[in-house]
Amino acid sequence: MSTNRISKWLFLLMLAVIGSLSCGSDDGEAPQPEQPVAASLELSISEGYTVAGHAKPLLLSLKALDNEGNELFNPSYTILVNGEEKGRLSTFRSETSGSFELKAVVGTVESNVVLVQVREQQVYQPKTYRIIFHIVHDGEPLGTGYNIPQDRIAYQMELLEKVFEQSSNLTPNSALPNIDFELASIDPEGNMLAEPGINRLQRPDQSASVLFEDWMWGHYWDPDYYINVWVGDTKNGYSWGIYPEFACSEPTLPQGLGCTSATDVHRLEGIALELDNLYDENWVFPHEMGHVFGLFHIFSGSECSTDVDFCEDTRQYNRVAYENTPTAHVRTSCTGDEFISYNVMDYWQQLNGARDLTYDQVQRIRAVVDHGLWRGGKSLSEGTPRDMSAIRNGG
Ligand SMILES: [Zn+2]
User: Fold this and answer.
1) Structural domain boundaries of the chain?
2) Other Cβ atoms within 10 Å of 157 Cβ, number
């Protein structure tokens, strides 16, 4: 390479360096777009209730608008919890119980305040119940028609245990009552059952239903010791669970439930389960057990004016409006927000997989465990089951 050529090459290189410097300088001094200013903030939270230490957090969402009403994308904000700065939280959970006030702050603009009640975790004494399924058939061979196979019962027990015994952590205020449901292994006369939890019998004739009719007293196992579930023909396509009664002297009667002055069993207690409700992903059986333990539906009939189930922490909605324009598993609550219902005391059109109970529902269940009459909570070591036909006839 000649000296001339080197000089020319150096000159071009210098031009390139100057050019690139000047470009960089221009970029650095370009005017920046002004940061949009939030004029209003709206904070919302997925639930108003949770339980201390619950694995499932509450979800926070913030809507920020500028002074022309345009929504700001991804604003930077800080959440204050009871006045204390906690940073840019998108979820909330607490290890301690109490009332919490949350609000969002962007610069000098503050959001509305959302309230969260964090309940104290309850520790309940374990309680065991034994269930007897009376399979009421028409003489069909075992495993056909109304004479359903054992695995249908095993499947229903799985669903029951998922609701009452296993944490699903689907909703932040779910809880468990510390109940253990088992299939009965011994009949009222003290004999070992051939099939655990199953008593097969033929109904008197095909006009007889399992809807708590008189003939069933002959196949009624003492409800002090067993939860009776009659499976078969209810004649109307629906299943039913009998609400508990309390002694009228009982001072802690849960709201909405009745009391009786009867001193002994005076009616058929338990569940009538329609055969059609036993197929896969049908949660009717645990739902009816909820009724047996004093729970009401979480929805109202056609309005939203009352606390229909006496549980503050269930999301309630208008069922008639929902059925007029069904929106699959999404419900619109009485306070106007949309939610996905996992509660076992809701009706059909829920997501498959799991159902749960809320903290307040569990408190009602435990009141029934402690004070409800003829719920089947006695163990066979505490006494001897009676002949219920004799009780029916006044003996
Ligand atoms: Zn129901």
Assistant:
1) 40-119, 127-392
2) 18
214-218 contact pairs (CB < 8 A, 24+): 216/134, 216/268, 217/268, 217/388, 217/389, 217/392, 218/389
Query: What is the 347 CA–ligand 1 centroid distance (Å)?
Result: 7
How many CB atoms within 10 Å of residue 201? 15
Q: What is the fold of 40-119?
A: Immunoglobulin-like (2.60.40)
Report the alpha-carbon distance of residue 290 to residue 356 in Å, rounded.
11
Q: From the CA of 170, how far away is ligand 1's center (Å)?
A: 21
C-alpha radius of gyration, the chain, whole number = 31
pTM over 0.85: yes
What string of pLDDT tens digits covers the 395 residues of the chain?
444 454 444 444 443 443 333 333 344 455 555 567 889 999 999 999 999 999 999 999 999 999 999 999 888 999 999 999 999 999 999 999 999 999 999 999 999 999 999 999 999 999 999 999 999 999 999 999 999 999 999 999 999 999 999 998 999 999 999 999 999 999 999 999 999 999 999 999 999 999 999 999 999 999 999 999 999 999 999 999 999 999 999 888 899 999 999 989 999 999 999 998 998 889 999 999 999 999 999 988 778 877 899 999 998 888 888 888 888 889 988 888 888 999 999 998 888 888 999 999 999 999 999 999 999 999 999 999 999 998 887 75
Name the residue among 214, 243, 216, 229 with its Cα closest to residue 274: 229
Whole-number Å distance, alpha carbon 53 to ligand 1 midpoint, is: 31
The CATH T-level fold of domain 127-392 is Collagenase (Catalytic Domain) (3.40.390)
- Ligand 1 mean position to 392 CA, how many Å? 27
- With tokens 């004093």, the residue in question is 294
Say how far apart CA 294 and CA 262 lie, in whole Å.
Answer: 19
Q: Which of 283, 279, 301 shows the shortest CA–CA distance to 291?
A: 283
Q: How far apart are the first and last CA of the chain?
A: 125
Measured in Å, residue 197 CA sits from the centre of ligand 1 at 23
How close is the Cα of 297 to the center of ligand 1, in Å?
Answer: 6
